[in-house]
Structure formats: structure tokens, C-alpha cells
């Protein structure tokens, strides 16, 4: 299953401004999710200020995309992932585990709040 990207200010504002959005944070990332009537939608904010090398930004985008599809593909949600601070120690395995844990915690939080709508 694939996803549709969040494109434009209006799509992102829908997730940021809506009071029913859920959020979970980790050391380097914050994820916000909103239950919608659309299929799974994904947006990422990984600024150059926080992640200097394009290779690292592209790697994170690929990992976030793949892991989010694994966890949320069957859900009708909009997901936004934001890097919180500058990532100095770019260890691929550590960041992959952190993102996976972030998504699993977010899914668990949604399950508790919404009576197990998601897997």
C-alpha cells in the first residue's frame, strides 16, 4: 500500500492546528498524527539547519517513509514527522530504531485513545 504526500501549507496546518491531533516525541524527532477520512498521508519536515548533509536527509526520508507505511498504511490518518534539533551523531541503526519506536508509541497512543481502530 502506498501513501499520498502532504503538500502545501493547508495540508500541514490541518494536522498542526487541529485539537484532536496526537503527538509523540523522541530525542531527535516529533510526530503528529490526525485521524482523517482520506487514505494514509505523510509529511516530513527535515530542515537543512538540523540535518546538514543531503545524503542524511534523503536517508531519513526513505526510512521514515518505509517505516510509516509498515505501521500506518491501512489507517486513515495524516502523519507529520519533524526533526527537533540538529542531529550531530548520525548513526543509521540508532536513528532507525528511534523512528520505529516513535511510530510504535504513536500507534499505541492512538489505539488507547480510539478503541483499537488501528492494528
Can you give a write-up of this model?
This is Ribonuclease P protein component. One of its GO terms (biological process) is tRNA processing. InterPro entries: Ribosomal_Su5_D2-typ_SF, Ribsml_uS5_D2-typ_fold_subgr, RNase_P, RNase_P_CS. The chain has 119 residues and is of the alpha/beta class. 42% of the residues lie in helices and 21% in strands. The chain has a single domain, classed as Ribosomal Protein S5, domain 2 (2-Layer Sandwich). It has a 5-stranded mixed beta sheet, sandwiched between helices. Helix 2 links the parallel strand 4 and strand 5. The model has no long low-confidence stretch (mean pLDDT 88).
Brief characterization of the structure:
The protein is 42% helix and 21% strand. It has 119 residues and is of the alpha/beta class.
What value does the Rg take, in angstroms? 14 Å
CATH architecture tag: 2-Layer Sandwich
Helix fraction bin = 40-55%
State the domain count. 1
- Number of continuous helical runs: 3
Please tell me the overall pLDDT: 88
Could you give a short account of the major beta sheet?
Answer: 5 strands, mixed
The third-level CATH topology is: Ribosomal Protein S5, domain 2
Q: For this structure, what is the CATH class?
A: Alpha Beta
Termini distance?
A: 15 Å
- Beta-strand percentage range: 15-25%
Written as H for each helix and E for each strand, in order along the chain, the element string is: EHEEEHEH
Instruction: Detail the poorly predicted runs.
Output: none
Structural class: alpha/beta
The tally of beta strands, per DSSP, is: 5
Spatially, the strands of the biggest sheet line up as 1-4-5-3-2
Question: What is the general shape?
Answer: globular
GO molecular function, one term: ribonuclease P activity
Organism: SAR86 cluster bacterium
InterPro entries: Ribosomal_Su5_D2-typ_SF, Ribsml_uS5_D2-typ_fold_subgr, RNase_P, RNase_P_CS
Pfam families: Ribonuclease_P (PF00825)
Amino acid at each position: 500500500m502506498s501513501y499520498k504526500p502532504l503538500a502545501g501549507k493547508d495540508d500541514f496546518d490541518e494536522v498542526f492546528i487541529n485539537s484532536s491531533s496526537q503527538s509523540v516525541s523522541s530525542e531527535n524527532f516529533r510526530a503528529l498524527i490526525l485521524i482523517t477520512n482520506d487514505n494514509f498521508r505523510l509529511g516530513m519536515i527535515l530542515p537543512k539547519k538540523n540535518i546538514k548533509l543531503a545524503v542524511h536527509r534523503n536517508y531519513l526520508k526513505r526510512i521514515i517513509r518505509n517505516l510509516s507505511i509498515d505501521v500506518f498504511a491501512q489507517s486513515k490518518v495524516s502523519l507529520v514527522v519533524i526533526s527537533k534539533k540538529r542531529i550531530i551523531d548520525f548513526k543509521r541503526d540508532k536513528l532507525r530504531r528511534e523512528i520505529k519506536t516513535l511510530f510504535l508509541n504513536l500507534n499505541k497512543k492512538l489505539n488507547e485513545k480510539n478503541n483499537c481502530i488501528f492494528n
